[in-house]
Design brief:
Helix 10 packs across helix 11. The longest helix is centred in the N-terminal third of the chain and has 20 residues. The N and C termini lie far apart (82 Å). The protein folds into two domains: 208 residues, Aldehyde Dehydrogenase, Chain A, domain 1, CATH 3.40.605; 195 residues, Aldehyde Dehydrogenase, Chain A, domain 2 (3-Layer(aba) Sandwich). The strands form five sheets. A seven-stranded mixed beta sheet has the order 15-16-17-14-13-18-19, with helices on both faces. It has 18 helices and 21 strands. The protein is α/β, with parallel strands linked by helices. It binds nicotinamide-adenine-dinucleotide. Keywords: NAD, Oxidoreductase. It is an enzyme of class 1 (oxidoreductase). It holds the Pfam family Aldedh. InterPro entries: Ald_DH/histidinol_DH, Ald_DH_C, Ald_DH_CS_CYS, Ald_DH_N, Aldehyde_DH_dom, MeMal-semiAld_DH.
Length: 523
Amino acid sequence: MTTTMSEKDITIVNNYINGEIIPPAGGDYLDVQDPSNSSVIGRVALSTSDDVDRAVRAAHAAFPSWSALTTKARAGIMLSFHSLVKSHAAELASLIVMENGKNMTEALADVAKGNETVEYACSLPQLMQGRIDAVSTDVTCRDRRDPLGVVVSIVPFNFPFMVPHWTLPIALVSGNTVVLKPSEKVPLTMYRVVKLFEMAGFPKGVINLVNGTKESVTSLIDHPLCRAVTFVGSSPIAKFVSDRCRALDKRCTALGGAKNHLIALPDCDVESTASDVVVSYAGCAGQRCMAASVLLLVDDGKGTDAQQKTLLRRVIEKASEIERGTEPGKMGPVIDGHSLNKIVGYIERSERWGAEILLDGRSWIGDDGGNWIGPTIILHHDRSDSAMNEEVFGPVLSVYRVGSWQEAIDIENSNPFGNAAAIYTTNGGHAEWFVKRVRASMLGINVGIPVPREPFSFGGLYGTKSKYGDMDITGDGAIEFFTNRIKITSKWPAPCVPEYVVGLAKKQKMDTVVDHANFAGTM
Ligand code: NAD
């Protein structure tokens, strides 16, 4: 059963270009649905290359005056935005609940975590300073960071506020102008946020919003005035975006999908590990690139089997307690019917593969039009089962028993994503053994969602399906990405004080002035 809002309550999401709300040139829109009941809550513009051209040109026109401001002046405007986000957090979180399906606590965290990157960007006047060094006699080298120009950001559905803010704050405060392409599944949040940027005092054209799907993405990348692209989304599209940018000699960082492993040693603390595993795999309905996907229970054959059975029982018990809903503490739906069917497909294939479904989230599937699937736990007996190896992106935990530490490492390291991994143990030496050998970019010790916070930057492992392009996003990696280092080498050989100044100073017995002038070489 699908309900639809009355037409007057439906939000029409147009483009935001040069400070103006502009309908798409072709007049086409796509429905936006509330994932908890599939009711139509909005219509989002499907932009064409004409819309993209208009937005990129607006950003390009705004670049000279925006980049000419001091970093401090730009950071000051960003600081006002930070306050506005705080005072509008509840409103933004409500939009996130409605269009993404997160529960209210998760939605508020989405806003708060995005605002942390804003805080970091407000420190760029201190963090982005150039260096100076005397590299030879009378010769100094200094550098400064210049912005790139128009930066394009393409983002996924799963964090409507936070992921766009992996790019916007640092790109903007470092002096770039931006065109953002939100996910067509969750366009309402950023449509509201651009108005907060406007209220904060960002000049027209500095931030632009183009909505749409594939056509807008390819037009943005191909636009000759686009200088750099950040992408966050699934691996096949990340690779497509990265390859296209590379062919056009554009700077690009493209973050893709994930398959994250949690390794529980027999010496882990059962209660805290069980809680953390459940939060990691079922939080945000499993739709996080940092979510746990596979739990490897290490049973070293020295009488540890009973302990690992207790851990698994506690994980099942805690996951079973989760209730369906978008209120705080409950678990929301997945984003759409396509995603729901994909998740159910993995569970069904695992059954055919001989796996045991220890907790079956299919019991949540109903006829209210919502994309509900409950926490699911699968005990695999075959490592080649597709749910063990591919990104499921839903509240599904694959459990697999291994007989040694090395087997756990081999399974983790053979996965093609290399995004995140975590080890659970009460022994620091055991933890260090693992973090030296695990091949993933973001590692946790007793932390199931090991997201590095600023100044550490975020990103998967180069050379795997989790990251195409060689730079991270957020933190100090983002400063490197969004700027060019301009190096200036200067030579002021001494003495370079004009003769008449020396003569005048000697006449007036101002030896120290002459010495100083000679030494500094600045006259
Ligand atoms: P997606 O790849 O379907 O979409 C991401 C963006 O690409 C959207 O803006 C979409 O409009 C656009 N897009 C979709 N198809 C396209 C095409 N054929 N050509 C050009 N552009 C296209 O991803 P999603 O479903 O929105 O998000 C879920 C995925 O994002 C998961 O795989 C998840 O792991 C990943 N993700 C990764 C990270 C990370 O940091 N590595 C963070 C969040 C999400």
